[in-house]
Write the structure tokens for this entry.
Amino acid sequence: MLAGATGQATTLLRPPYSSTPDALSNNDWRAAQHTGELGYLAALSTQDGLDWQSRARSPA
């Protein structure tokens, strides 16, 4: 999405619905580790980005 909007690629990845590191399941952690193997850096936060609110508002 960022590359399409700006023309710039990034290797940063913020997993969706990762409001805190504790919010990630074991499968989520494995996926984050795998993206690291692919050259991405998973960016986690201790602050809820409230992205879960936008899911309710997005069209189906």
Q: What stands out?
A: The chain has one domain: 11-57. The mean pLDDT is 78. The longest strand covers residues 12-13.
